[in-house]
Design goal:
Elements: H1 5-16, H2 20-46, H3 50-58, H4 76-104, H5 110-114, H6 116-119, H7 122-142, H8 144-153, H9 157-166, H10 175-183, H11 188-196, H12 199-207, H13 213-232
Keywords: Membrane, Transmembrane, Transmembrane helix
Pfam families: DUF975
Transmembrane segments: 20-38, 75-99, 126-149, 191-216
Length: 238
């Protein structure tokens, strides 16, 4: 990989210059949707949503105790599965939107971009994501370290899948995953160090009560899109 981490970050800052408002909105809306879905899942699993749980723990209002009487949905596991897949595809939607922006400067409608895995080539997105998660879970069950290694091995899956779909190719459920594994052969440590280089930024975001993350997340994702394009070129977009 010829491009250095410093160059990838400089490219990201240049690409985001004048576009921070759109990038921050994309990141925030994506986070908000994930939060709402997680809240719904929490309600079906525990009989209370996240906000209610916080209020109940720190307040004494008896009227808030009504949810304690809610019987937990026996199909909570199914809700959890559906929500988990939805969150994963929404995350991929954010990645897709950023990669499109990185490649051609197009600032897609935020909601259209976030939900693009549901509205375009849903079958390929759904099946690839399901197998992607299954493989990671199985490797993690073996040991944490093999799971972490495979997480980096499969890290380029959504980027590759988008390139394949944009080129008009309808990949099999494992094609993008296998391509990511081959692409990352010899480069997993590069991505790991790339991630480590953002630790200071993440800490700064936490110290700022999460406010700084509104800018740090787009910066990181933009730089990671540059990492992918620098590594893969256009070999999957043909």
């Amino acid at each position: 990989m010829a491009t250095t981490r410093k160059e990838l970050k400089e490219q990201a800052r240049d690409q985001l210059r004048g576009n921070w408002g759109w990038a921050v909105l994309l990141s925030f809306v994506g986070w908000l949707i994930v939060y709402i879905l997680t809240d719904i899942e929490n309600f079906f699993e525990k009989g209370e949503d996240i906000v209610y749980g916080i209020v109940r723990r720190f307040g004494n209002n008896a009227e808030l105790m009504y949810l304690d009487k809610v019987r937990v949905n026996p199909f909570a596991w199914l809700i959890t599965l559906v929500v988990s897949v939805a969150i994963g595809l929404i995350t991929w939607g954010v990645i897709y939107t950023i990669l499109h922006f990185r490649d051609n400067g197009t600032k897609e409608n935020v909601l259209s971009g976030i939900f693009s895995p549901f509205t375009s080539s849903f079958k390929s997105n759904f099946l690839t994501y399901i197998l992607y998660e299954i493989f990671l879970i199985l490797w993690t069950w073996l040991l944490i370290i093999p799971g972490l290694i495979k997480a980096y091995s499969y890290a380029m899956t959504p980027y590759i899948l988008l390139d394949m779909l944009d080129s008009g190719h309808e990949p099999t459920a494992t094609e993008a995953i296998s391509a990511s594994r081959k692409l990352m052969d010899g480069h997993k440590m590069d991505l790991f160090i790339f991630d480590l280089s953002f630790i200071g930024w993440w800490l700064l975001g936490i110290i700022s009560c999460g406010i700084g993350l509104l800018w740090i997340n787009p910066y990181y994702r933009q730089a990671k899109a540059n990492f992918y394009r620098s590594l893969a070129g256009d070999q999957f977009a043909k």
